[in-house]
Amino acid sequence: MDIEVKNLHPLEVRLLRHVSMGEDITTDRLVNELGYKIGQCNQAFSWLSAKGCISEKSRTKYTIYELTETGLRQAETGLPVERIFSYLKENGPASLPVIASALSLEQSDVGSAFGSLSASKTAAMNEEKKACLISDSLDGEVLLQRSLIDRARTAPLREDSLTDAERKAISKLAKKRGAASSTFKLIEKEDVVYTLTEVGNETKSELLKANITGEEFGLLTPQMIQSGSWKNGTFRPYGLNAPVSRLIPGRTNAYADYLQWVKDKLVSLGFEEFDGPLVVNEFWNGDALFMPQFHSARDIHDVYYVKEPRHCRKIEEPWLSRVAATHENGGDTGSRGWGYTFDHEFTRRQVMRSQGTVLSATQLPHAKIPGKYFGVARCFRYDQVDATHGADFYQTEGIVVGKDVNLRNLLGLLKMFAEEVAGATEVKYVPGYFPFTEPSIEVHIKHPVLGWFELGGSGIFRPEVTKALGLDVPVLAWGLGIDRMALMHLGLNDLRELFTPDIESVRMRRGN
Fold first, then answer.
1. Element (H, E) at 131
2. What pLDDT score does 280 carry?
3. Residue 422: which residues within 8 A CB-CB, separation 6 or more?
4. Comparing C-alpha atoms, which of 232, 236, 229, 239 is closest to residue 213?
5. Cβ(59)–Cβ(192) below 8 Å
6. What is the distance between the alpha carbons of residues 500 and 265, in angstroms, rounded to a whole number?
């Protein structure tokens, strides 16, 4: 490969001049010796690899555990389990809402922590339904977790440096996508070592011969003219033969077109579209869907809480009273409920909509029998962005209401979404769990590059959901990731390509 050394980027020039044949070239070395940032290292590696100047010598993958903001706070104040243990030891038996208020903890955190204390036989509910201690000391696993938190305050923990017991303990505090409520964020990393090639060594010699240092000016600024600093340096050559910009007419976005196509298809099948606000309260986001306020099922919905105003003014009646009764004792749904005191303050807490099922819940009190409804809902969850996940994403959400609807109807709808809307050829249906449907089904499709992934969940709403909101007939429900369907339909391999700022990529995709 003939390389014009005058056209090399300063990041490439400085790297090549700094290293020699046989030496290991790593990110840490460039950061410490050349003052590069991580992003600059990656750019230099990518450019020089493409030119054949460096080659990959080794690649080591490993996992680290890093404290989140929640974990850093817990390092100072203690884990919820520790704080609840200390509170009960000092104050005696107390109800979970009282503990939550006294310790300024979210009630879901108190419920999860008490569940851990109960499982380890450290605490239990007494006859007055108050939490009380039955052991004078914390479980050994909690003490091990505290030790891990203290160690992680100075530096992240590598998984391969932990014992089996430590891995088990830390796994209960960590989430791969770094949920805001978790103590640790699990991060998968890799160390890549490069080495100089013969091409790179020859290019380095050319740089030295041409006296190109990588410190050349790439831009003449007014400040340089005023200070006269331009006189003491040399300039990088300008590319006078660089192609000019093309004139391309505007086009609509491919993903926007796809969303509209899905809407048109569902409307043509007799569905009515529904919509709702992005900010909702915990009542519609979870309580109306029979998700208990203290149950670990809420852990799957890592929501963004609204800072101000924290609470909505009120919840519509009679739905608030009916849903509260359903949670406490089953109300008139034929269920025993969850058997706890419904928190009317918690239910008014405002969050960013974390699931499209919110739209279905708000539609139930107004649904016609029979009726078919759908929505394309933008949702928000604290998530690690990767090829199949986003911190905000779109779901296609819908319900079918009728006296005679059944599981076979639901499977037919899932088949339509997977094969016709997503364009998948390999589809499978597996049992799932959702607090608000029974039975529950997940539909999975196979992507030619990414392999199998979940398209979304579905099921038949439980009577605790429908009867509490005024319906006494079966209701089919689904919430599917329309972003993931678009991957298959548009022939993409990464969700981020749907929202890319690379206009050329958008133009090419639209051209297809």
1. strand 131-133
2. 93
3. 445, 455, 484, 485, 488, 489
4. 236
5. yes
6. 26
Nearest to 44 by CA among 32, 31, 57: 31
Burial of 490 (0-12, 13-18, 19+ CB in 10 A): middle
CATH architecture assignment, domain 67-189 = Orthogonal Bundle (1.10)
Token pair of 59 as six digits: 């690649």
- Cα 119 from Cα 114, distance rounded (Å): 8
Tell me: pLDDT of 490 over 80: yes
Same fold, 67-189 and 255-505: no
**Domain ranges, ordered by start, for the chain:** 67-189, 255-505
Residues in the chain: 512
pLDDT at 69: 86
pLDDT in tens, 165-208: 988 888 888 876 656 678 888 888 888 999 999 998 999 999 88
Domain 255-505 has CATH 3.30.930.10: yes
Report the alpha-carbon distance of residue 84 to residue 100 in Å, rounded. Answer: 9
pLDDT band at 404 (very low <50, low <70, confident <90, very high): very high
The pTM of this model reads 0.52
For the chain, first and last CA: distance in Å? Answer: 34
For residue 429, give every residue at least 6 positions away whose Cβ sits within 8 Å of its Cβ, in sequence order, or none. 411, 414, 441, 442, 443, 444
